[in-house]
Amino acid sequence: MSDVRGFCAATSSTALPNHLSIVNDFDDECEELMTSYSTFTNIDIYKEQDKKNKFCLAMALDDKYPIAATLLFTFETSKGEGTGVCLPYMATRFGFRGFGLGELLLRRLKAALWEQGISEVYVPATSSASGFWKRNHATPVATKFCDPKIIEHCCVFNGTTLLVLKTNSGSTVNSLNFEVCGNLDTMLRLYAVSKRFHALSTEDYKTCLKIVKGKNVAFDKVKGWTLLFEAVQRSSSKEAFNLCLHLLNDGADPNQVEDSFRQTPIFFAANKGHIDVIRLLIERKADPMRRDRNHQVALYYAAKNNHLTAVKYFVKECKIYAYISDYLRRTPLTYAFEENKDGSHDAVIKFLQCNANTGAISPPLRNYYQPMPPGCLRANGNQRIRKKVVEDDPATPPTSEGSPSTFDDDDSFSSDDEPVRKRGRKGKSALSARTKSARTSSARASSAKGTSAGPGRPRKKIQENWSDDDVEYIPVPPSRRRKTKTKTK
């Protein structure tokens, strides 16, 4: 196994741009890359191995800067069956993910190990990384029939699945993004941006202050993530305030949305409980009622992490409803109760319970980046209901014909030419018969046109820019009487 450290000269059918190379002499840089941006909390398992048994492989930019790396170590199997290889850590630098660099590095690694006579590599894969490994032909290991030495050395994490990777398996389709990775200047710019992000989250205050005072750094962006997201998360509230002030003065957007959870910087400020930063962001037009991918507002995170001052600010000054709910009917009080350990959240719980004021504002229960689902306006029902909904939310597109309604008929919005729903059984059944008949005729008309509004079938294309004149009101046909056959004697 001593020759395995010289495997970087292995050949592969995948071509690399001239400014990218495969090296194995960046041990310290590779270890730093693994722990940056919480990819891994630590790499103690790798550090505990003997120096002669561990090695790394990195993809370097311009032979200087590692942008993707993997750490491996070898171990002896039982009964003298040979040497096994475990791959516990593999990561790509923040800013370079999604370009296919990890898969390219893995193909080079498999080719090099195959030349050294190693046919299998064991990978303890987390749930988030299992998709990547399965795309590269890794298969689960039947631990019941596996060598105990393999289980001992490779099952090093809790909540992982042990996979085996065949080094002679067919490689995946080349997914390298040559439009980005083929340009040296673009890659160097991405590397500089990545280093600034990492420094702002780990370096001392003076170093971070020099970074935010740089030219146009406020506009650095990686998948929606800007330096403002890092600044609001500093452990010191005073440092976070000063760094955010510099970035906002240079043009940073306080309502910038990151791609993962669709959150803005105010969510992270609420998570930390920096009330001065929260006030600064709102003064600069940040939206405290913004909902994220979980349909929650920043108040949830302040209540969950027991930041009473931030909770009071959101409820009292921002006028956010204390019992605001998400799609699963969870409220900030739900998270406060869940995190309450030995009375730690009692003050937050008491405040939320005592301040469920009816005058507060509750933002609409839908995502800002998704349209309201069709079917919220009924195409064959009450015209005044339709008109009222349109006035309340003019951005709501009209529904397809024959769509079921989520609004009930109400006496206060009934039309003159339609009967008002009565409390008696007769009035209700008559209205239901008319609605059912209208839906049946609408479905037949849609079917004749080649479209259908039934469940699970494609609807007609919804018009985006519309007015009340564009809405077609479907006439309700008279109910058909059931024909009965007369018996002849």
Structure description:
This protein has 489 residues and is α+β, with helices and mostly antiparallel strands. It folds into three domains: 2-180, Gcn5-related N-acetyltransferase (GNAT) (Aminopeptidase); 201-354, Serine Threonine Protein Phosphatase 5, Tetratricopeptide repeat (Alpha Horseshoe); 371-439 and 468-473, no CATH class. 36% of the residues lie in helices and 10% in strands. It is built from 18 helices and seven strands. A four-stranded antiparallel sheet has the order 1-2-3-4, sandwiched between helices. The chain has a three-stranded antiparallel sheet with strand order 5-7-6. A hairpin with a 3-residue loop joins strand 2 (54-61) and strand 3. The radius of gyration is 31 Å and the shape is globular. Residues 4-14, 366-431 and 447-482 have low confidence and may be disordered.
H and E string = EHHEEEHEHEHEHHHHHHHHHHHHH
Highest-level CATH class of the largest domain: Alpha Beta
Count up the domains. 3
Please give the count of helices. 18
Q: What's the story with the biggest beta sheet?
A: 4 strands, antiparallel
**Class from helix and strand fractions:** alpha+beta
Shape: globular
Strand order, sheet with most strands: 1-2-3-4
CATH architecture group name of the largest domain: 3-Layer(aba) Sandwich
Helix content: 25-40%
